[in-house]
Amino acid sequence: MISKTMKEIVANSSAIRAMFEEGQRLALIHGAGRVYDFSLGNPNVAPPEAIRRAIINIAESEDPVFLHGYMANAGYPDTRRAVAESINRRYATNFGEDNIIMTVGAAGAINIALKTLLDPGDEVIVFAPFFGEYRWYVRNFGGELVIVPNASEDFQPDLNGLERVLSPRTRAVIINSPNNPSGAVYSEETLKALAGILEDWQKKTGNAVYLISDEPYREIVYDGAIIPYVTKYYKNTFVAYSYSKALSLPGERIGYLAVPPEMDGYAEIWPALAAANRILGFVNSPSLFQRVAAVCADAVVDTSVYAENRDILYNSLVDMGYDCFKPQGAFYLFPKTPIPDDAAFCEAAKQYRLLIVAGRAFGVPGHFRAAFCVKRETVLNSLESFKAAIGQYR
Amino acid sequence: MISKTMKEIVANSSAIRAMFEEGQRLALIHGAGRVYDFSLGNPNVAPPEAIRRAIINIAESEDPVFLHGYMANAGYPDTRRAVAESINRRYATNFGEDNIIMTVGAAGAINIALKTLLDPGDEVIVFAPFFGEYRWYVRNFGGELVIVPNASEDFQPDLNGLERVLSPRTRAVIINSPNNPSGAVYSEETLKALAGILEDWQKKTGNAVYLISDEPYREIVYDGAIIPYVTKYYKNTFVAYSYSKALSLPGERIGYLAVPPEMDGYAEIWPALAAANRILGFVNSPSLFQRVAAVCADAVVDTSVYAENRDILYNSLVDMGYDCFKPQGAFYLFPKTPIPDDAAFCEAAKQYRLLIVAGRAFGVPGHFRAAFCVKRETVLNSLESFKAAIGQYR
Lengths: 394, 394
Hints:
Two copies of one chain form a homodimer.
Chain A: H1 4-11, H2 15-30, E1 36-37, H3 49-61, H4 64-67, H5 77-91, E2 100-103, H6 105-117, E3 123-127, H7 133-139, E4 144-148, H8 159-165, E5 170-175, H9 188-205, E6 210-214, E7 237-242, E8 255-258, H10 266-279, H11 287-295, H12 304-320, E9 332-333, H13 342-349, E10 354-355, E11 357-358, E12 368-371, H14 376-391
Parallel strand pairs in A: 1-10, 3-4, 3-5, 5-6, 6-7
Antiparallel strand pairs in A: 2-8, 7-8, 9-12, 11-12
């Protein structure tokens, strides 16, 4: 009774979501405290108190007809200005209200960018490991996902691999730093080299290639890691941002797409993005949270909680014998599985009430992802299970 | 620089939105009080005070990690139960939490239903006049919109026309009662006859045909008009609902899709809808407003304001010589234009600072739509302009 497209999607449906739902099932059997759910990037650090105050203050003081009403599909102009100014302050960019379109999270931002760019058969390049949902986002518009395999222990993008897959049908490249699932941060050198390759390609072929920089983890970094602002290195860059992680608001679906004024085709692209927001059914980013984001544009959750979780889990897993890259940002660990079959390992881990996601969901088999944005006690109590999970293969 | 698909969409972009933006431009020149903007269904009646209280109370009392976090893609189970129970109380239906998926407004609800149903080339039937966005929603998934022309003065669906266009490729029929733009309400007899035709067709061909009933105006009715609950007449019915109009919350993007348990293919359709919510980039309906909707599921704005606006505008326009159907619901008037060219009439009306939308945007040229969900003073002050607009053709 459902479309062929959806049959395939449901059959291959999100391994992450499947684990999340398995976790809820196991919690009913064993009690929530005895299930160690590392499946989903659902932040467990409270939003800044400023969020609660902003919600209450806005609800008490603003005219509700204006507050909950329609606005331009791009969002409230003053919200867009506040967001632009916050980015300008922090990264010395030059954005105005017509460079920020408020969206239904980063997922909404990426989808309106792809809707604007893609005709059926166009190609979009990603670097493994990558957030598995990109697969479906590209497919939403008849595009083809082209995967550059991972080629390094530290999960930097394989730029030689990029050169091999660029084609006349390439319309966009998606990057995600800090990276989900690996926690890698792309350095300034990497971004410069990436930009150089794309510039050369554009010059040689006359085809514009757009970079979509998916940055929900921009503020979640460790050991003083720096996240360069990508539009400064490559002008044909869309920045897809979400307040889901920096403000712990994933359920509210609030984010934006930044579109630099110097982008090739800006004049044509800007109105198309607003139209895409409308016709894809988003219409606009939720209005109350646009007002909240304007007030709290510079706020960030207490990331030290994630830093400590990272240290505990990383050090413990390495001690146990897991082979693991130390994340520089985001809130995921992406260790090698002790056996080659990552799906079998994740399945076996369930007997220890441990919910983790197989690396193949991110284009890198032989690894698993553990989201450590959980309660401290979950991290601590889970260690016996991680030990048992690797121990069975000794 | 943009896709062929988006070029066409931007070129034909929403006449409604274009008028809304023209109104904002004229307001800067003439002052907002001297521009009569009837372009957009943006409610001017305040949300019930219960909304403000619910927002503040929920923000003050609920755990913010839970309140603003991810939940199942279908929405919070308790919200879905509260919504189901509210519908059951009012319409004697038999819905549970697994029959309600919370969505990003009715636009989100229609899009996830179409994503679930359509393969490229599948046909979706609408009755003119119809909400113009259906055109793009169907196109989002490669579907073909099939329009049954209007055949009656009172804008009832042409069921003979339906029988003529049903084809082996028909996957869905969209209806919208109370209707935007006409204000017509489809009677119980009409719905029974419509259901009969679809049942016969299904029996004859073995093809399931789904009805999508788009009902954001269900509560906005006049003179005691009754809106039958469509799932009772045809089991293969999705009800797409939004709180945009009944609670004056269009900017918040909160609504749901109701999916009756007896629907053909329910077991396959239900998980596909949740997956569609995810992969289209909605992920879930905004979380705080899910909690608000649960508390306020039975609330409705003061519709007497709309009833009075309707009476003033309808009576005045008829007195001036406009040929106009009296709306039974929603908040639009859909009169004939005094000249055949509706686009020319709407363009000419701008000189009287009157913003109305040409009927061709809704599949019925020779009419215009005036959204009377505006301030009373706008209705009263606009009357001279409506008079001048028809007067120029005397």
